Amino acid sequence: MGHTPLPGIGVRYDLATREGRRLSVIAHLDGSRTLNTYRTDDPDATALSLRMTAEEAGAVIDAVMPAHHSPNLLATAELGLVAERVELPAGSPWNGRLLGETRMRTETGVSVVAVLRRTEAIPSPGPDFRLAGGDTLIVIGTREGVGVAAGILDPR
User: Following DSSP, what letter does each residue of 45-58 receive, concatenated?
Assistant: First the structure.
């Protein structure tokens, strides 16, 4: 599955099914999702576009991957929390600076639980962790907090 950052909007995830059908999901910064399917006779033409609130998208996720199959996983949505991937663009003012300098946790209450960098995952980065353009931060917090955190990392 590929992904494309959409500045000011969110991230688009693209995939193809085994049968060759193209799908995309746009994860909007406000937590909503747009699911698109494309026509088989014209792969650039949308066959269906469905915008869902975060809660509706959560219900679809539960229907596709029921939570009872993974009883040890924290059901963050029920607690009012979301887990999101937030990308640090190369042009971010935080590129090369320390995570603690962003004051994300203090300002938003969001926790950075891991950083994905190229082919490695760095779990539980501390305030002295040096950020790099292209990093993907895995954050957990309230929907509002995650949105503010994304704005801190990419203030464009």
Answer: SEEEEEEE-HHHHH
Q: Which residues touch 115 (CB under 8 Å, ≥6 apart)?
A: 121, 122, 125, 129, 131, 135, 136, 137, 138
The answer to pTM > 0.85 is: no
CA separation for the pair 88, 20 (Å, rounded): 32
As averages over each run of 10 residues, the pLDDT of the chain (156 residues) reads 81 85 87 89 88 81 59 55 86 93 92 90 93 92 86 83
Q: Which residue has the tokens 């292209």?
A: 134
Residues 6 or more apart in contact with residue 79 via CB below 8 angstroms: none
